[in-house]
Amino acid sequence: MMKKFLLRSAWAALLAMAACGSKVLTEEEAYTAADAAYEKAATPTAKIQVWKDFLEKYPGSPHALEAVDTAVYHYMEDLKRPEEAWTFIQKVQTTIRDPRELLKLQVISLPVLGKLKAADKIKHIAAVLSEKPMNFDEHMAVSNACVEVERWDLALNHARAAAEFATPESFKADNPGKEFAPDRLERYVNMRKAECLTNAAWAQANLGRFEESLKTFEEARPVTVFSFVGAAEPPFDLYLGKTYLMQKDYAKAMETLTPAAVFAGDADACEAMRAAYDASKGPAEGFDTHLEALREKLAKTVTDFTLPDYKGAPHTYSDLQKGRVVLLSFWFPT
Description:
single chain; two-stranded antiparallel ribbon; mainly alpha; 17 helices
């Protein structure tokens, strides 16, 4: 609590300096100060508060939507509070006059409205956005929100429309001034393709078009990223497994859901897999034991390797183990 108090006091002091004239901060300086305070904030609540304070002082800032987007992220991902996120967005909306900025704010609001199951509001935003040419992010935001509220026709239409932007040319046009190595550009384009196709396939399944759905899932498979243990980038495994579950093909459902449920810890995949287990093997009381047995059976042995640390000193995996549990974390500068 003391750390949070000191952080907010420091940010308040900066604003007070601007108000009292001892050091008049420009809007850009205030943004820089807020960004620094955000990085130092220790909790999601404190991070949100930094941007709420900034927006209170500078509602018309060119950084306003960036601040909103960041705050909404913490409301949704860290705190799981879509109601508070929506209240926050509505308050910000009253301060924005530029119609283009208002449209962007509505796109930011779509995941929130999806979690709130606000189907009518999502349909309205989709209609407003459709009055002009939409880009990839807008189409996918609508598609994802429609999946949340089970508006499968709209989810499918916007996923298909988004697929038109899953090309190298469109990706580069959406990122002007940036250069991409060919392999990285291909990766980003494939990520777009996978997202569009997976949503389209899930919508087709829920519209009862199972044969078409499975074909679309197979189109998505080659461009979907799979981990070392075979778990796909979400939500491919979940949607395909639930499609098999809808068809009462419980064996394929369990096989498909296993990597996400066992290794990725996906709660939704675990729930769907439990339903398939219950339907095919009887009471689900033995499911947890079954899951643990699968974990032991399917766990892969890592081939021994040696890699250098930042100082160039080599480290061999087998030497690090020696009867201990070892957590390995790989990352690279971007």
